[in-house]
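Batch manifest, entry 17 of 40.
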Amino acid sequence: EGFRTLFSGANWATGRAILMTIGQLCFYDSVKQSLMATPYFEDNLLTHFTASLAAGAIATTVTQPLDVLKTRSMNAKPGEFASSLDLIKYTAKNGPMAFYKGYVPAFVRLGPQTILTFVLLNN
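Output type: structure tokens
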């Protein structure tokens, strides 16, 4: 299939990785600070758990469209899509929710991973 096929979907995977980092790291800190600004939360396990859960949900929501595009790009036959824009248009024809196909399984994987990462990191 060739060298180029080896890297099919790499552009989508790179964008997804960038958004995943932003979704997890930035939003974890932002949510945690917002929670601790209320009288209901202090620096404890519940706060870290809640902020991690929110960060996992945000990261999944932000990255899922790129994950769908990456998967479609990697599974496409050579020449099936003329460009990245062609792939986006093809996916958009199925409606906006087509970009969130597989959201629940993605969150079921990412949610616990994000919680474990930040709870263990901060304790």
